Amino acid sequence: PKDLYTEKYNDTKQKTYYALQLPNKEFYIINYLQPGNRIKQETTCNEYGSKCTERIYHYNKAGILQSIETKETQPCAEIIINGKKRGAYIGNELDGK
To answer: 28-43 burial, b if ≥16 CB within 10 A, otherwise e?
Structure first.
């Protein structure tokens, strides 16, 4: 995660995205469904971004919460550079042919 603090709104000034880095250095991110201001996805990541917990909210047609799906993700790997932990994305080597 790279958002220290971000808010995004749609054309009708309804919040669609909110992200910040918490005092404990973890990242907290929310994506909203609009209209209705319901949470679509909520993510908490460690300070390195190497381990995240995602909660995906499922609603019925009436907008009533039916279930919350929780999963652990690893969007990047932890590596140590000059004695400090850092998050790094694993890439694929491309064939230049």
So the answer is: ebbbbeeeeeebbebb
